[in-house]
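Table S2 (continued). Query chain:
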Amino acid sequence: MRGGCRLFPVLLLALLRGLCHGREPAPGAVTCGSVLKLLNTRHSVRLHSHEVKYGSGSGQQSVTGVEASDDANSYWRIRGKSDGSCQRGTPVQCGQAIRLTHVNTGKNLHTHHFPSPLSNNQEVSAFGDDGEGDDLDIWIVQCSGTYWEREDAVRFKHVGTEVFLSITGEQYGHPIRGQREVHGMPTANHHNYWKAMEGVFIKPSMDPAKHDEL
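Corresponding output:
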């Protein structure tokens, strides 16, 4: 019994350390409410937006790809297609409809029938106020399993126009020199794979104040 008593504090300490770190052995699924950066796996740039409007097309807030991994304007929040349809901490399923809301400006990832300025594909913009835009903000997560896993490359297919979120490498000049054009393409190919990278991932069935940070 004494040996068991001596062992108990050691086991308790190990358990508490595990809870404080809040980490799982495997990365796990991307969950609703998580805030993350998305890397285009073909071109190694992160999905990005900022308070710079397109000079043509819709004139809405531009969406680009950037190489820097530490840019605060590359964070996006995972939300459902409507309020309450993607409860905080719930794993996102393959085939689920979501919105991606740009954290710093509160605008949603959006596309519509305007030509993109460099490649003449379909323009992708950031639209709305405080996370509320319209039906053209909705994207389907395409992946091969049951859930969107953090280590997997996935596609985002636009519900309203059926294009895929893509980058093919065209670069802007002033005032966003070197940033890549993000656009919609009608075909699934190697230009439209994205992977979850840095972020704050809300765990399933947890208090919203608890999360994994990467």
